[in-house]
């Protein structure tokens, strides 16, 4: 498999008051197309920082991030926003759904940036909800859905524009074990049956077992070479 994500000598430093804090120290990493990667490590190890850099939500202090041949580290904010809307689906721990919108309207949100007609947006949202097993809940608002169902809506929203890959930051962190297993099985299905590349930050070893590779970060450095289960 060719590399979807290719990272070389990646660094990230934050200014906190008078001092500079280096969060990532010269990361080298390749993630192949079609992989399902779990990013693990103790709190403060740089997991979410690395995820945000790969997803184009933040800019590195140094190094290269190449995704499908594009150097996103060279993009300005406007270019990054355009690139994200076409290539990345985001799934967060707390769902980030709009409380006043139905499940279908929440899923349609990324499509408002496209040239699709209203009927096409509706159809695509319905297909995405069907894929995550919530076709019968399309008219429900978030407060009428369980946590697991809300995360399914969030996943449908992440995949509705057919992104190149999914970025998942602790997607099961706010769920009970049963709901977490349903979400992880759904992610595995999207990876296995639909070829979606998934990069997932998790603190849960059981969640990491669903991935094909686990990458460990410690103090901003790779602690081990990714290896298949």
Produce the secondary structure layout.
Layout: E1 3-16, E2 19-32, E3 36-40, H1 47-54, E4 62-67, E5 70-71, H2 77-87, E6 88-91, H3 103-108, H4 118-131, H5 147-159, E7 165-169, H6 177-194, E8 197-201, H7 205-208, E9 213-218, E10 221-222, E11 227-228
Parallel strand pairs: 3-8, 3-9, 6-7, 7-8
Antiparallel strand pairs: 1-2, 1-4, 4-5, 9-10, 9-11
Helix pairs in contact: 4-5, 5-6
InterPro entries: AAA+_ATPase (IPR003593), ABC_transporter-like_ATP-bd (IPR003439), ABC_transporter-like_CS (IPR017871), ABC_transpr_LolD-like (IPR015854), MacB-like_ATP-bd (IPR017911), P-loop_NTPase (IPR027417)
Organism: Pseudoxanthomonas dokdonensis
Protein name: ABC transporter ATP-binding protein
Explained architecture:
By secondary structure, this protein is of the alpha/beta class. It has a single domain (34-59, 90-228), classed as Rossmann fold (3-Layer(aba) Sandwich). Helix content is 32%, strand content 28%. It has seven helices and eleven strands. Strands 3, 6, 7, 8, 9, 10 and 11 form a seven-stranded mixed β-sheet that branches. It has a four-stranded antiparallel β-sheet with strand order 2-1-4-5, covered by helices on one side. Helix 4 (118-131) packs across helix 5 and helix 5 (147-159) packs parallel to helix 6 (177-194). The protein is globular and about 50 Å long. Residues 225-229 have low confidence and may be disordered. Keywords: ATP-binding, Nucleotide-binding, Transport.
């Amino acid at each position: 498999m060719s590399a979807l994500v290719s990272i070389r000598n990646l660094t990230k430093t934050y200014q906190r008051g008078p001092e500079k804090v280096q969060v990532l120290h010269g990361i080298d990493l390749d993630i192949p197309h079609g992989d399902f990667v779990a990013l693990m490590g103790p709190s403060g190890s740089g997991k979410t920082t690395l995820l945000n850099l790969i997803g184009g939500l933040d800019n590195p202090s140094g190094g290269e991030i190449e995704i499908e041949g594009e150097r996103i580290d060279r993009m300005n904010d406007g270019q990054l926003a355009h690139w994200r809307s076409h290539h990345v689906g985001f799934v967060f721990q707390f769902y980030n759904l709009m409380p006043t919108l139905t499940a279908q309207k929440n899923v349609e949100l990324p499509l408002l940036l496209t040239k699709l007609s209203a009927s096409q947006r509706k159809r695509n949202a319905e297909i995405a909800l069907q894929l995550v097993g919530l076709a019968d809940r399309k008219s429900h608002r978030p407060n009428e859905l369980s946590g697991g169902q809300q995360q399914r809506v969030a996943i449908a929203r992440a995949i509705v524009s057919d992104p190149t890959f999914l970025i998942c930051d602790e997607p099961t962190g706010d769920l009970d074990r049963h709901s977490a297993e349903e979400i992880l099985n759904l992610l595995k299905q999207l990876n296995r049956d639909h070829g979606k590349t998934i990069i997932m930050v998790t603190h849960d070893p059981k969640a990491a077992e669903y991935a094909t590779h686990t990458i460990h970060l410690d103090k901003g450095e790779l602690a081990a070479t990714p290896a298949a289960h």
